[in-house]
Design a protein that fits this description.
Oligomer: single chain
Structural class: mainly beta
Strand content: over 45%
Order of helices and strands: EEEEEEEEEEE
Radius of gyration: 13 Å
Number of strands: 11
Helix content: under 10%
Length: 111
């Protein structure tokens, strides 16, 4: 079972990035799925998640209106579209299903 995250990079404030997380060995539809992030010196925090039971998507207040989480069932992949990026969005981003973490992808917002 593996979650492979990708798509991070260096972007200027106001820019956009799209993170991907491809799952192997499991079917994402069978789980609640989420994205977390951890900034230097800070605890890991939840960014967004999709409920298994309802399919509803939730966002932290800090990213609401700027980030969009989605999934592609055919590709067994989840995504995080990040727009209007801010300095404070700089962090390692992790995809997650219960008990399984992806390896993390670095997002750096800098001018």
């Amino acid at each position: 079972v593996q979650l492979q995250a990708s798509g991070g990079g260096l972007v200027q404030p106001g820019g956009s990035l799209k993170l991907s997380c491809a799952a192997s060995g499991i079917t994402l539809d069978n789980y609640a799925i989420g994205w977390f992030r951890q900034a230097p010196g800070k605890e890991r925090e939840g960014v967004s998640c999709i409920s298994k039971s309802t399919g509803n998507t939730f966002y932290s207040d800090s990213v609401k209106g700027r980030f969009t989480m989605s999934r592609d069932r055919a590709k067994n992949t989840m995504y995080l579209q990040m727009n209007s990026l801010k300095f404070e969005d700089t962090a390692v981003y992790y995809c997650y299903i219960p008990d399984i973490w992806g390896q993390g992808t670095q997002v750096t917002v800098s001018s």
